[in-house]
Amino acid sequence: MQIVNTQTHDPQTDEDLADVLTAISVVAKRLAQKLNVLSQEAQEETKGEDQSEQDE
Predict the structure, then answer these.
(1) What superkingdom does the record give (predicted)?
(2) What CA–CA distance (Å, rounded) separates 19 from 15?
(3) Distance CA 14, CA 19 (A)
(4) Which residue has the higher pLDDT, 19 or 49?
């Protein structure tokens, strides 16, 4: 872990770090949404297979 001396800390670094963290957050949200959609599709598929087996 890096220790930063706040007296000589570059404000641009803080801004860059905030931008990177924001980008990570956006990507994480998109991935979570995609996983949610895939999970729902898998549940619907499983539900459909269960109904098909009951009909036989």
Answers:
(1) Bacteria
(2) 6
(3) 9
(4) 19
